[in-house]
Amino acid sequence: MIQKQEIQGQLTQLTHQDVYRSRAHTHTHVEELRRNESAASGQRFSIIAIDLGTTTGWATLQEDGLIRHGSAAFHAQRSGGRFEGGGMRFLKFRRWLSEIKAGLDKVDAVFFEEVRRHVGVDAAHAYGGYLATLTAWCEHHQIPYQGVPVGTIKKHATGKGNASKAEMIAATMKRGLTVADDNEADALALLYWVIETGQMEVLS
Fold first, then answer.
1. What's the whole-number mean pLDDT along residues 49-67?
2. Helix (H, G, I), strand (E, B) or coil at 199
């Protein structure tokens, strides 16, 4: 089982990157962990945790114990005097996934927040599109992936399966982490669920 980690130090940086001729607005925070290893085998893992959506929260854990986290927005943009088609955000998302992967030595697994109820039809359609893009991308790169129910993540982070956005942000800040929004907080909560419940041992 992967042991619980201690946060040491904090470094924040802001990045913006072009994706498919439009800007995907991305901000990144960097935290350093004391160690990232399996207590049983000493094996180290590299993980991506994602809170899917038009504003996607994300967190990565590298083999060297470095955590990066932030959020990226994939809104429709005006290009060449007209707005992009509805599928462009999913192309941006796929390109962004590849850029995240390129920043890691390897990716052992991807975990994503599994939403089973949506506030509206548009939200459900958007989530389905991001989910299909993510899982197809994982299959293409032969990366194991796993969905985790929202309630499971919230309960681990706060003790409440129906925790509010504010409560999720507060729980993340109690760990000494800086987040800009609830999407980023949810991705970090998912990452810590993976680490602290030994999920990588199951997939390895």
1. 91
2. helix
